[in-house]
Amino acid sequence: MTDAQPNSFPLNRRTLLGGAAVAALGAAGIGGFLFTENRIGPWRLTARALVDRLQDTAGGSFPGCRRNHAKGVAVAGYFESNGGGVELSKASVFRAGLYRLAGRFSLAGGNPHMPDAPTAPRGLGLRLFLPGGEEWRMAMINIPVFLDATPQDFYERTLAFAPDPATGKPDAATMKQYLESHPKTAAALGVIEQGAPAPTFAASAFFGLNAFRFTDGEGSTVPVRWRLEPDDPPPATGPGGGDSALFDGLVADLKARPLRWRLVVVVGEPGDPTDDATRMWPSDRRAVHVGTVVLDRVDTESADNVQDVNFDPLVLPNGIEPSDDPLLQARSAAYSESYRRRAGESKPTGAVLVREV
Ligand code: HEM
Fold first, then answer.
1. How many structural domains does the chain have?
2. Same domain flag for 19 and 127
3. What is the pLDDT of residues 248-305, one digit of tens each?
4. Residue 139 beta carbon below 6 angstroms from any ligand 1 atom
5. In terms of residue numbers, what domain contains 22?
6. Is 139 a member of any domain?
């Protein structure tokens, strides 16, 4: 499973680690279709099939848990809006002020007890409480592009990158074949592999990846993407031990002081793809700092915080609308299907025990 295949996609150790993470990403990051029973695309792909796929990748389902990003911890804090977003969107969240939020850090994968792997995609779900009962929910990950342009690609990739039951690892030949026939995924993997993951959750950037549309008070609309950039994260203290070293580091960092991320909105220009999360926009696009996410509380997941929250990326305030990216509808439907399954099951205690850190 090392290198060597004479093709344009070198399968080195990192690629394979990335492959495992990517399989997890399938399990954790796939989102929603229009409706649970909706048939999507020529192969009648449904949200149910996507969530079944995620469960298979995880080696089964874990009652009460998310079918992707199952391992997580609850956080809370506020968004400090600096008013810089008002020119782009009429959404109330961009008026200068403080807005309460609840959130959840996670790792991609359907097993809540999986050991923390540095290469597993890290997730951050946020739920901002806005005036008039509106909410802005988002679920972001720490990689700058997604591996799949379409829900169908997501489904096929999670099959191709699934761990082989005999070895517990993805099969190199199957992955290679998949990448050769899916150049968008291969290109995205190349982009992801250019940067090593940050040493901690606190030092990680998080990307919304899918494009959205902002509408201002005059009715003008622009395509946007957003990201969170870490603002003065604490230094990494070196690799901790144990299966939850990454989460334990996050809990320790949050117990020491609040953690901050700048929310940056990137404005697309005509021709920038809004329907393909595998492709970056040119780096010179206008980036507007619209405020800061401040997290000052961390808790074990429970019914009192985010255990029963669906961070559906289509829960949006007036002034922010979805783009034509087909992943968005798919994510919404798959999250809903995952939520439906876990809602009917008794809930385990969150796997990351904050009091013990
Ligand atoms: C077709 C593509 C995708 C599918 C099928 C999918 C599927 C899922 C599912 C089923 C869940 C569990 C939802 C729940 O039970 O509440 C989930 C969680 C999550 N996904 Fe996706 N996802 C996709 C794409 C993405 C993308 C593009 C991102 C990042 C931009 C992402 C980030 C996350 C995060 C952060 C969570 C955890 C949220 C939480 O803490 O509740 N996913 N995904």
1. 2
2. no
3. 999 999 999 999 999 999 999 999 999 999 999 999 999 999 999 999 999 999 999 9
4. yes
5. 14-44
6. yes
Distance 341 CA to ligand 1 centre (A): 15
Instruction: Decide if 324 contacts 275 (C-beta within 8 A).
Output: yes
Q: Which atom of ligand 1 is nearest to the CA of 66?
A: 15
What global pTM score does this model have? 0.91
Q: How confident is the model at residue 12 (pLDDT cuts 50, 70, 90)?
A: very low
Which three-class secondary structure string do you get for 95-145? CCEEEEEEEEEEECCCCCCCCCCCCCCEEEEEEEECHHHCEEEEEEECCCC
Enumerate the H helices of 147-228 as residue ranges. Answer: 151-160, 172-181, 183-193
Rounded to whole angstroms, how far apart are CA atoms 269 and 277? Answer: 15
- Ligand 1 in reach of 206 Cβ (< 6 A): no
182 counts as catalytic: no
| Helix, strand, or coil (residue 201) | coil
The answer to whether residue 300 sits within a structural domain is yes
Q: How far apart are CA 275 and CA 150, in angstroms?
A: 9
pLDDT exceeds 80 at position 40: no
Is the pLDDT confidence value at 191 over 70?
yes
